Amino acid sequence: MTVQPHLTHVALFVSDPGRTVDFYQRFVGLHVVHDRTDEGTRVVWLSERERDPEFVIVAIAAPPADEGVPPHMAHFGYDVPSRAVVDEIAARAEKEGILEEGPLDAGDIVGYLCIVRDPDGNLVEFSHGQPINPRRVN
After folding, report:
1. How high is the pLDDT of residue 116?
2. What CATH number does residue 100 fall under?
3. Model's pTM, two decimal places?
4. Residue 64 domain flag
5. Which domain holds residue 17?
6. What is the pLDDT of residues 112-138, one digit of tens each?
7. Percent of all residues in the chain with a pLDDT value above 90, rounded to a whole number
8. Which residues pair with 14 in a beta bridge?
9. What's the number of domains the chain is made of?
10. Residues with Cβ within 8 Å of residue 45, at least 6 apart in sequence
């Protein structure tokens, strides 16, 4: 791979986003930089930087999975510089039998992405056009 992906987010499933926000604000000093509801599910982005974040924790309102089972779509998110790089990663992952999803265009906030499983079954998202800075969303 000639391009180094850049870690932009970690997505976590949480039972109560308000409680999660309170915890990370009080114990870590994180700021809410984005807060939306998609089809009844609250999604909150938390960052060390109040403006222009480069990395966020994405707290998704859904109960975590049973102990020892990764929740669906809890993942590490990496940014890559183009759709072509997403396509290349997806093609390599498909050849290795580890492509979970994509490539697909999931809209302005999520961007163009593919999802790959690591050797332990953890999900890793590679995306292009997913602005972590909410001020850059169309």
Report:
1. 87
2. 3.10.180.10
3. 0.67
4. yes
5. 6-136
6. 999 988 766 778 888 998 777 656 555
7. 36
8. 61
9. 1
10. 9, 32, 33, 34, 35, 53, 56, 57, 58, 59, 132, 134
